[in-house]
Amino acid sequence: MPDPICPLCGRPIPPDARQSLHHLVPRLKGGRRGDTVCLHDICHREIHATLTESELARDYSTVEALRAHPRLARFIAWVRKRPPGFTSRVPGKRRNRR
């Protein structure tokens, strides 16, 4: 059986790679029983380093919307060049927290 594909970056997720479930609508914003997607851990961390829970719930509740975000689009272009099991600290500066 082939490895699952990360819907954000499009790379396979090998069984030994760090992975996590992402709630498309954050649990704290009403998505407790909502749709989830399995992502590379690095992809999941970049989403939460980029967007607030409110932004995710309001404007980025689909994979397509996440891919269209300018910072995430740059991240995806960067991470696609890495092997499927690649892990690293989230590159770049975290979003400003108020």
Kindly provide the radius of gyration, computed on alpha-carbon positions and rounded to a whole number of angstroms: 13 Å
Widest sheet, order of strands: 1-2
- What value does the average pLDDT take? 88
Work out the helicity level: 25-40%
How would you describe the shape? globular
Query: What is the β-strand count?
Result: 2
Sketch the topology as an H/E string, one letter per element.
EEHHHH
Largest sheet: 2 strands, antiparallel
Derived from helix and strand composition plus strand pairing, the structural class reads: alpha+beta
Our estimate of the beta-strand percent is: 5-15%
Number of helices: 4
Please mark out the parts with pLDDT under 50 across 5 or more consecutive residues, or reply none: none
Instruction: Measure the end-to-end span.
Output: 45 Å
Task: Please name the defining characteristics of this protein.
98 residues; alpha+beta; two-stranded antiparallel ribbon
Write the layout of secondary structure elements.
Layout: E1 19-23, E2 36-40, H1 41-50, H2 53-59, H3 63-68, H4 70-79
Antiparallel strand pairs: 1-2
Helix pairs in contact: 1-4
